[in-house]
Amino acid sequence: MCGRQSMDQTRQAVHQSTRKSAHGSAQGSAHGSAKPTFSELFTPKLVTVWREGYHLPQFKADVMAGLTVAIVALPLSMAIAIASGVSPERGLYTSIVAGFIISAFGGSRFQIGGPAGAFIVLVAATVARVGVDGLLLATMMAGVFLLAIGYLRLGTYIKFIPYPVTVGFTAGIAVIIFSGQIVELFGLTLPGKEPGPFVPKLIALGEAAGTINPAATFVAALTIATIAFLKRWRPKWPAMLVAIGLASLVVALFALPAETIGTRYGGIPRSLQWPAFPPVSLDRMIEVLPDAVAFALLGAIESLLSAVVADGMTGRRHRSNCELVAQGFANIASALFGGLCATGTIARTATNVRAGAHGPVSGMVHSVILLVLMLAAAPLASYIPLAALAGVLAVVCWNMFEKQAFATLLRASRGDALVLMATFLIVVFRDLTEGIVVGFALGSILFIDRMAKSVAVEADLVQDDIADTVNAAGAYDPSEASDADTIVYRISGAFFFGAASTVGSVLDRIADQRKNFILDCSAVPLFDSTAANVIESAAHKARRAGVRFIIAGAAPPIRRMLINHGVKRPLVTYAASISDARAQLVGK
User: Fold this and answer.
1) Could you tell me which of 81, 157, 152, 163 has the C-alpha nearest to residue 114?
2) Domain boundary among 446, 472, 506
3) Which residues of 116-131 are buried (b: 16+ CB within 10 A; e: fewer)?
4) Do the domain assignments include residue 451?
5) Under a CB-based contact definition with an 8 Å cutoff, are residues 347 and 117 in contact?
6) Which UniProt key words apply to this protein (predicted)?
């Protein structure tokens, strides 16, 4: 996983990729490029790489990168599975099956798929409520939903989730995951089943504080310290795997009374299970529908964010809808083989890029290596202490909680801080889905408020005001801006429902001033139906008062919108510019 420096690099990568995407979109619009074809949208990056020319040097680079990622993914996949309330091999099944499909058919060159820490809370809650069979059915349904999102080309819109929501959501998940590892970190013994909700869980942990197992605590601390040491002094070493190996060796040599995978789960199998459908019925599908929707939405967000990070690190551009289609097939296949819900993983994808991967073959190699390790070295997994895996997840949680970004948003503005804290607190104390919904709603309201405040209505400009108030859409000639019988208003900014009351209150006074009214819309990039209704009402009022109403400079889409809402002759006339509007008045 990435440390603080790596997380900062990730943020820079996202920013750079967003700028490149926006620049590319602007160029496409400027050149009037046609819409991409189906094959352009859904051709896997593996095909693209082969078309470019794929030879032995590229294959060697992908093999080395795949080996590096597999070493990172091996302990992490098992740790995520155990934290999710299932046996460790299911995490390996996910990385092997889903990881291979995501790389082979996805829209990103460097995406590494598998089980993700962000899903731990959702998966654990699903398993507790409907069992493993219900989890597998929900995962398959989530795969179908992801296919639909991808083929309907909705992937473009998922990236619109506000940044404070993603930071608050990720931080909330980190807190919940860490709270779920405290039992294993300290070897606590609870009298009953560990509560799911956050506050009852903390109460139960406090009551069990007297049952701390010193051996388990030592193993967890040794694991965390080893990872931290290697990340600082030997950053190229596979810190998590080394830490797991060292902890297992210490427990075995000194016969420490710490629970292991073997003592709890009896080890892991040495083969993939045969594909099989989970029990399916209409009632069961309805029961797990909320879980499937949550898996699909979180998987889509996480995978596209991971792809954007890879884009920013490499200068490439992923195909979002193709990536979602691959995620859909991967989740269906993962469930058939007994795996968990899968998505693109940011840390493993970033590791893949830094390891020098050339294309999707590295992700496919990573899955094959994991399969070989499971077939050949499965008995060794029995010696892995659960406290060591909990230590790995504790490090994951530390890195997931983006401390610098969290602090920056708290200082940025009251609105961003409100969205951040609302999302974070609701995720921790209520529910993940509610946290996203509330955070997105607050973020949208904040955006509407900011956009509404950016709309300006200017009237009767004089020469001294022009430099400060008129943008590139055009400048006023003071001789045309006003005369004894004519008043000119200019609207600047997006005119939509959020600004309707502000603009409407100004336009309502036009009949009380002069005989001719020119409304300059040359600086308006957007009209919605609410704005068109405001203009229609103002036009009717002007007609009743005998005021001539001319709309100048409206772009063709805006003019069509207004005409469709009844803003046409005899209520108003249209002019290409203020000069043309003045000419209409002279020639009347």
Assistant:
1) 81
2) 446
3) bbbbbbbbbbbbeebe
4) no
5) no
6) Membrane, Transmembrane, Transmembrane helix
